[in-house]
Amino acid sequence: MSQALVRIAAVWLLGLMLAVAGAVVAVNLVNNTVASPQQPVREYLDALHDGDGGKALGLLRAAVPPGNAAMLDGTALQTAASRFTNVKLGKAEERAGGQVMVPMEYTIDGSRLRTEFLLEKTGTEWLFFNTWAFVPSRLPTLDITVVNASEATLNGVPVNMPNGRNSFAVFYPGEYEASLNGEYFAAPPTRATVTSREAPVAPLNLLTEATGDLREDVSAKVKEFLDTCAADAVKQQKLQPDCPFYFASNNVVKDGTIKWTVTEYPEVAIEPFDGRWVVSPLDGKAKVEGLQQNSFTGAWFPLDEEVDFSFTTRLDVDGDTINVTPLLTY
To answer: What is the pTM of this model?
Structure first.
């Protein structure tokens, strides 16, 4: 009877030892997975990919610096996070003050990058499972400037640019692309990669240029002005009309024979200058025809001369409205 009890006790003892060992293994497994320092990082990255800025900010325990918050939620945030791939979280490394650093390696535009997250132990749950949280920090900022514009697009979202500049609070890691795609003014895309809260981020500078549509529309208005001017000069039979072109002669030109035509229209170039847009001086050629009389011999002979002309204009663009005002000197 005693031997049977001993065997039963041995079996129970073995079972208890196996249960304790299993519990220890389970606790270690949980502490190395869902209760590991990497878990808050995984949840933070998931929030970035979901565009859930509120959750990401709460997990990161970060203060939001002064500036525009357009990049902290929704599509803009999803776009920033979608550009890093091949993510690999490394083993937590101990730091001073009971903190740990979790490294993250990833790829953006073919470049292998690294971000380090600092976390601290905040307690335990159910006596055995560790709880971790990010060490409180402050979000980095991204500065953007744009030439002669008060708006731009950042990660696909329209943003205001008062006086051509703005500062945006951003999450990390992420990539941010700024551009300007207007009908009349545009700037090619430029990108900045934010890898940490400490690393300085180079500002994005959008170099705005006039679009082909604007040049075509201004050219059409310049052509219309010159054609109208030439037609009025013919109606008024003037050699020196109120136009950029004129012809001076000592001979008498028979009234009714004067004809003006523009033979070479100016090429339009539009450049930024002193906070506004200016049209470069417009150079072209015009031809005057008629029948003139020699002042000395009285003989009549054809007038057929091509003259160079040049003038400037003032350009005003208000939304979809373009005004081109010729500035003529006499």
So the answer is: 0.79
Q: What are the boundaries of each domain within the chain?
A: 32-210, 212-327
Strands 85-89 and 99-108: antiparallel
Q: Identify which of 138, 99, 104 has the alpha carbon closest to the alpha carbon of residue 118.
A: 99
210-247, pLDDT tens digit by residue? 999 999 999 999 999 999 999 999 999 999 999 999 99
Cα-atom radius of gyration of the chain, to the nearest Å?
38
Nearest alpha-carbon partner for 310 in 280, 288, 289: 280
Distance CA(63)–CA(195), nearest Å, equals 17
Q: Is 39 left (phi over 0), alpha (psi -120 to 50) or beta?
A: alpha
User: Which tokens go with 57?
Assistant: 């900010």
In three-state secondary structure terms, 15 is helix
The residue type at 308:
D
Model confidence over 274-329: pLDDT tens digits? Answer: 889 999 999 999 999 999 998 888 899 999 999 999 999 999 998 889 999 999 87
Residue whose C-alpha is closest to residue 119's, from 107, 136, 106: 136
What pLDDT was estimated at residue 104? 98
Distance CA 251, CA 296 (A): 9
Query: Within 10 Å of residue 238's Cβ, how many Cβ atoms?
Result: 17
pLDDT of residue 318: 87
196: DSSP letter: -
Q: How many CB atoms lie within 10 A of CB 34?
A: 11
Cα within 13 Å of Cα(8), Cβ side: 5
Helix (H, G, I), strand (E, B) or coil at 163: helix
pLDDT in tens, 187-198: 999 999 999 988
**Structure-block tokens of residue 204:** 């994005």
DSSP 8-state code for residue 64: P
Instruction: Provide the residue type at 225 as one letter.
Output: F
